[in-house]
Structures are given as structure tokens and as C-alpha cells.
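Project outcomes to date are best conveyed with an example. Our students and postdoctoral researchers have been running inverse folding experiments weekly, and each run begins with a structure described purely in C-alpha cells. The record below, which covers 72 residues, was selected by the lab manager from last quarter's runs and is presented without edits.
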């Protein structure tokens, strides 16, 4: 894993959704359906959008268990 990817995973450890229906929930614990909604409507700009895309891609690839290390 390169340095940029490692930093993204570190950010996912504590970053919480700042608004909306799932405000306060960690990004990696957001439902895939909610992430797909953002994909259709448009991800937020900046770092938040980048991390939401990362989580969606991991969930699509069946790698949701990879987030278990962040849940501890």
C-alpha cells in the first residue's frame, strides 16, 4: 500500500459523516445504498467525497471486512 492509500485508510478510522441522515456515523459504516445515492447525485467535493468513493469501491468489491480493523 502506498503512502497516499495508507493516509486515506487512517482518515477513515475516525472520520464521521458531517451531515444528513447518517450524521455522526463513521464513513466506513455507511450503508452501501447511501453511498450509491451519492454516486448518482454527486459526491461532496474535497476529501469527504474522495473517502466516500473509496468506501463505496471497497464495499462493491466485497471488501467490507477490511474495515473491521478500523472498527476495533
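After processing, the design step wrote out the following sequence:
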Amino acid at each position: 500500500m502506498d503512502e497516499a492509500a495508507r493516509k486515506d485508510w487512517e482518515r477513515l478510522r475516525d472520520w464521521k459523516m458531517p451531515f444528513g441522515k447518517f450524521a455522526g456515523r463513521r464513513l466506513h459504516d455507511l450503508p452501501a445504498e447511501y453511498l450509491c445515492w451519492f454516486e448518482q447525485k454527486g459526491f461532496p467535493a474535497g476529501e469527504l467525497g474522495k473517502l466516500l468513493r473509496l468506501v463505496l469501491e471497497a464495499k462493491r468489491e466485497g471488501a467490507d471486512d477490511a474495515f473491521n480493523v478500523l472498527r476495533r
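The chain has a mean pLDDT of 90. The radius of gyration is 11 Å. The training component of this project remains on track.
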